[in-house]
Amino acid sequence: MVFSLTMTEKIEKTTEENASDAQVYELGYHLLPTIAQDELEAEVAKLRSAIESRGGSFISEGTPAMNNLAYTMYVNNGGKNTKYDTAYFGWIKFEMQPGEARMLQEEDLKENKQILRFTVVKTTRDETRAKMQTEQNTVFREVQTNKTIEKPEAVKEESAEVSEEEISKSIDDLVGDTESTDSETTSEEESKEETQE
Q1: pTM of the prediction?
Q2: Is there a contact between 35 and 88 (Cβ–Cβ < 8 Å)?
């Protein structure tokens, strides 16, 4: 028995094998803040079409929003450095062949003059992005108090005169060697009495 594949079956099999080699990537980008708000969607559409033209399929994306940059960036525009402190940040998660992803970076994204900065990283299909805290979804717990915290008063110790005998006895009780010190205490007492007479 000899099995032969038709040309259509060979193409379908090759396409299935290539699809299994595809990786999931996430493109994070900063667009120039000079882009007008109504033109922003057109710039994002250019990024999407570049991904689609390289055979990428979309998984999810985040709408670009104006953010302050962590540090000032300078871009050389025809011999003049332009300073940027803000940019539109957005992201797109997509699936693509590794070779095409490299070409996307080198030919499409680097050549786009509206992109201030970008990064493409391998990731997973699952939703791994942490939700950002915003004023709308942050709930603060209110704490109401009507008492003031007062500092507790220090306990005053009373002082009294303590004789040497009491100190020796306390030490002996702590140490546990009362027999040897009893004889010493007795001899000390006798010597004191003799000196007083």
Answers
A1: 0.55
A2: yes
Contact yes or no for 48/40 (Cβ under 8 A):
no
Q: Any idea what the CATH number is for the domain that residue 93 is in?
A: 3.30.70.60
Domain end, chosen from 92, 122, 152, is at 122
Q: Residues 105, 31: one domain?
A: yes
Pair (17, 88) in one structural domain: yes
Question: In a structure prediction context, what are the per-residue pLDDT tens digits for the chain, which is 197 residues long?
Answer: 344 444 434 434 444 445 568 899 999 999 999 999 999 999 999 999 999 999 999 998 999 999 999 999 998 888 899 999 999 999 999 999 999 999 999 999 999 999 999 999 998 887 655 555 555 555 555 555 566 666 677 777 777 777 888 888 888 888 875 455 455 555 556 655 555 55
Residue with token string 């708000």: 37
For residues 144 and 114, is the Cβ–Cβ distance under 8 A? no
